[in-house]
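Hypothesis: this fold can be encoded by more than one sequence.
Test: take the C-alpha cells below, design a sequence, compare later.
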C-alpha cells in the first residue's frame, strides 16, 4: 500500500465531530503531536491508524483511498482543461487539492456545471430571439450528474438500504405482491404502450400500483420491491435524500428514485448471498442472473455496489450507453474515469456490442496514463414484444483493474501480462493526450495547450 497523506481530510472529519486533537489522539491511542503531524501531512496515515480512524469516527476507511480520489482528480482536470486562457495545472497540484480539500474540488465541479447550464440557457434564448419566437422559459436543470456524484461519494454503497433489504423474509415476486397487499396496495398491470416513460405508476390516493404488462416476471418483481422500499422505508429514504444536500427538487426526486431502485436490487440480490455466489462463480454474470432471477444489466449494476466494509466484492466500473454514445448510467468503485466533457472513446469495446447482440465481448484496454483494465460488454434491450413495438437499446459494460482480472471467469484464455494484447483507448477526444490515435474525432485540448506552452517557452 502506498503512503497516504490526507491530513486536511482527517482534520475536517475531526472538526465535523467537534473533537479536539487531544480527544481524537486519546481515542486513537496515539500522542497529540503524532496526530498533529498527520494532519499537517508530515506523517502518512498507516493501515492500523486508518482502521482505528474508521472505528472511532464511524467512517469507511476507504474514504482515504487513492481510488476514491482518482475519479475526482480526473473530473477536475477535465474542467480546468476546458477553461480557455488558463495555465495548465499539474497532476501533482490536482492530487494535492483533491486529497486534502475534496469539498473545494467538488465545488469547482459544481461551478462548472452551473456555468454549462447557464451557457445552454443563453444559447436557447439567443436561438429563440433569432427566430422571433416567444420565450418558452429557460431549460430545466439536469439533476442526473448531481445524483450520480452523491452515489459516488457513497462509493455506490448504501449500507442502510442493504441492511433493510436483507431483513426481508421472502423476496419472491408472490411474496412481494402479498406484502404490498398487506399494506393495502393493489398491484395491477397496464398496457405496454407507456413502457418508454412509465415502468410503474403508483396512485397513492387509490393505493394502486400499476405495472407495465410488457415487463417479464423479474422486472415486475423489481418494480414491486422498489415501491415497497418507498412505502416501508420512507423515513430512511427521506433522511438519505436530506443528507445528500441536493440543490433542486428534480435532483431530490432523482435521488429518491435511485435509492428505491437500489433497495429493489438489494432485495432481489441480498448482499451476503449475492457476494458468496459471485465469488463462487467467478463473477459469471449470466449464471448470477439465472440464480437470482434477474437480468444481465441488473447483475452488473449490483456488482458495482458491493462495497460493504470488511466484506467488499470485486471493485468494478459499470456503465450503460446508447448507440449515440450517451452515457445514462455510470458507477465506479475503482479509479477508472471517462471524461464528462469529451465524450467516450470509440475504440472502447462497449460500442462493438451493438453489432453483436447476445454475445459477451471482452477487451483488455490501456488508458493514456498506463492504467489497464479488463472490460466485458453486452447489448441489452427492454420494451414490449411484438412487430414494430417501441423498445430501448443499450450496451452495458463492466470493467476492473487488470490486477484483479484473474478473479473473473472472463479472463480465462487471455494473456493478462502481455502489453501488446491491450487496446489503447482514451478518456474522450477533448481531454485525451494520445497523439497517434487513428480514431480521433477532434483535436485534444491538452495537446493544443502543450504546443502553445512549448511555443511560448524561450
Amino acid at each position: 500500500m502506498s503512503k497516504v497523506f490526507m491530513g486536511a481530510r482527517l482534520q475536517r472529519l475531526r472538526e465535523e465531530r467537534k473533537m479536539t486533537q487531544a480527544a481524537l489522539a486519546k481515542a486513537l491511542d496515539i500522542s497529540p503531536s503524532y496526530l498533529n503531524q498527520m494532519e499537517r501531512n508530515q506523517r502518512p496515515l498507516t493501515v492500523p491508524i486508518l482502521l482505528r480512524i474508521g472505528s472511532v469516527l464511524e467512517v469507511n476507511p476507504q474514504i482515504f483511498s487513492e481510488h476514491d480520489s482518482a475519479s475526482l482528480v480526473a473530473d477536475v482536470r477535465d474542467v480546468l482543461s476546458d477553461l480557455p486562457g488558463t495555465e495548465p495545472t499539474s497532476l501533482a497540484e490536482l492530487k494535492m487539492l483533491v486529497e486534502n480539500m475534496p469539498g473545494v474540488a467538488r465545488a469547482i465541479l459544481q461551478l462548472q456545471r452551473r456555468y454549462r447550464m447557464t451557457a445552454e440557457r443563453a444559447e436557447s434564448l439567443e436561438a429563440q430571439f433569432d427566430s422571433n419566437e416567444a420565450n418558452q422559459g429557460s431549460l430545466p436543470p439536469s439533476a442526473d450528474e448531481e445524483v450520480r456524484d452523491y452515489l459516488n461519494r457513497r462509493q455506490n454503497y448504501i449500507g442502510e438500504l442493504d441492511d433493510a433489504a436483507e431483513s426481508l423474509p421472502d423476496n419472491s415476486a408472490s411474496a412481494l405482491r402479498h406484502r404490498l397487499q398487506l399494506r393495502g396496495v393493489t398491484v395491477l398491470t397496464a398496457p405496454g404502450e407507456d413502457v418508454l416513460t412509465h415502468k410503474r405508476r403508483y396512485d397513492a390516493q387509490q393505493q394502486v400500483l400499476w405495472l407495465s404488462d410488457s415487463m417479464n416476471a423479474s422486472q415486475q418483481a423489481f418494480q414491486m420491491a422498489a415501491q415497497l422500499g418507498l412505502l416501508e422505508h420512507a423515513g430512511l429514504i427521506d433522511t438519505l435524500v436530506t443528507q445528500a444536500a441536493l440543490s433542486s427538487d428534480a435532483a431530490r426526486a432523482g435521488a429518491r428514485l435511485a435509492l428505491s431502485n437500489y433497495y429493489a436490487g438489494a432485495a432481489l440480490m441480498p448482499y451476503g448471498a449475492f457476494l458468496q455466489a459471485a465469488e463462487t462463480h467467478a463473477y459469471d454474470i449470466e449464471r448470477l442472473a439465472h440464480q437470482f432471477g434477474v437480468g444481465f444489466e441488473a447483475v452488473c449494476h449490483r456488482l458495482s455496489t458491493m462495497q460493504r466494509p470488511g466484506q467488499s466484492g470485486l471493485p468494478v466500473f459499470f456503465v450503460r450507453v446508447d448507440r449515440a454514445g450517451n452515457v445514462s448510467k455510470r458507477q465506479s468503485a475503482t479509479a477508472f474515469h471517462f471524461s464528462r466533457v469529451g465524450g467516450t472513446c470509440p475504440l472502447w469495446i462497449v460500442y462493438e456490442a451493438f453489432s453483436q447482440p447476445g454475445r459477451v465481448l471482452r477487451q483488455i484496454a490501456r488508458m493514456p496514463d498506463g492504467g489497464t483494465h479488463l472490460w466485458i460488454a453486452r447489448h441489452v434491450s427492454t420494451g414490449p414484444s411484438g412487430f414494430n413495438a417501441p423498445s430501448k437499446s443499450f450496451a452495458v459494460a463492466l470493467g476492473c483493474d487488470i490486477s484483479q482480472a484473474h478473479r473473473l471467469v472472463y479472463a480465462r484464455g487471455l494473456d493478462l501480462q502481455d502489453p501488446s494484447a491491450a487496446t489503447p483507448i482514451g478518456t474522450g477526444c477533448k481531454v485525451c493526450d494520445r497523439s497517434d490515435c487513428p480514431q480521433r474525432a477532434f483535436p485534444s485540448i491538452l495537446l493544443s495547450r502543450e504546443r502553445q506552452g512549448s511555443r511560448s517557452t524561450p
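The first strand starts at residue 186 and ends at 190. The chain has 17 helices and eleven strands.
Hypothesis status: open.
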